[in-house]
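does this look right to u?? nicotinamide-adenine-dinucleotide version
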Amino acid sequence: MANEERSVGIVMNGVTGRMGYRQHLVRSILAIREQGGVRLPDGTILRPEPILVGRNENKLAAIAKEHGLDRWTTDLGEALSTAGAEIYFDAQVTSHRVESISAAIEAGLHVYTEKPIAEDTEAALRLGRLARDAGVKAGVVQDKLFLPGLRKLKRLVDGGFFGRILSVRGEFGYWVFEGDWQEAQRPSWNYRAEDGGGITIDMFCHWRYVLEEIFAPVRSVQALAATHIPRRVDERGDTYDCTADDAAYGIFELDGGIVAQINSSWATRVFRDELVEFHVDGTEGSAVAGLRRCRVQHRTMTPKPVWNPDLPAGEDFRSQWQEVPDNDEFDNGFKVQWELFLRHVAAGEPFPWDFLAGARGVQLAELGLRSAEEGRRIPVSELSL
Ligand SMILES: NC(=O)c1ccc[n+]([C@@H]2O[C@H](COP(=O)([O-])OP(=O)(O)OC[C@H]3O[C@@H](n4cnc5c(N)ncnc54)[C@H](O)[C@@H]3O)[C@@H](O)[C@H]2O)c1
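got this back:
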């Protein structure tokens, strides 16, 4: 007997943007449709039906046409009241998020959203309470957890590879062109604080869940935020003043005395194997994990270099590390998390990355910015809805 099918309408806002289009529409929702849907525990096949919503009619129509979709509108209210719409998804610019999500919750839809869920912690917690009181399910994108490199790192932690973990050093970033002689590869709102931009708010949300899910709870933050490039050229060719930080140098104290230092920068040139890398040192071994790869050096295999600036380096240090095997198949992380959220909505399966988790990310960013302003280390308190 054929499995029963049921469709789930998803209002997708911000699909003309980088993340909304590529990662969420094409690589997640359309990819799920192409694979035939998501199977629920009772055998039912859940088929997502996107309803595109945005500001620009022409762009929406073009996307819909290209992908054979027939439902799109520039009216959020109309989208939210479409028959069969059960989930609202938001990948708009951050500054428009709270208003649209609130409207979706009031319309009785479940909500899934890009991070940061709001621009400040209080607003994030208010959203969480709104969702809880309305009895709708709410989830936030935490895509880095699903990166193959970080999953291997988590596997090493769970397997006890490191012994006592001492420190974590993260390097994230790349050069974002100023837009004068080569087009910038990120939208200009990222460099304007008044439009919700800034690398601290963008990246510290990620570092909160990465540090806590792989290592331990974050107890304090000390950060220095900088605007290294003071002027850039926007999408229309106009020069503008950068009012948001484009680099954030953070030190985080974790439970168990683990010290994590993470540099996040759009003003650095990459001399790494991947755009993000974490170097973890433990008493029993060390690891370097990127987006996909993870390499380790065990205590028993650790060489004994001797400092001698009079001689050229005599060892090839990188060759002294071993590759951690995949031992698994890794699908696109955004898609994997979408499948989990769909099962959460349709079959009540657990989904730990709710709006409280989203608010915790915003909190770390907010405290990071405050630390930078005040020049001091700030404790991270527990949040609750
Ligand atoms: N999970 C991740 O790794 C990740 C990575 C990058 C960005 N993001 C998040 O995704 C969201 C979108 O980022 P993006 O890089 O795709 O941005 P983008 O500028 O490419 O897209 C923004 C979207 O918002 C819409 N929008 C609505 N009101 C707008 C306004 N007033 N000005 C400009 N655009 C407006 C645009 O039409 C577009 O669809 C942000 O909240 C960002 O923090 C997440």
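The first strand starts at residue 5 and ends at 13. idk if thats expected tbh
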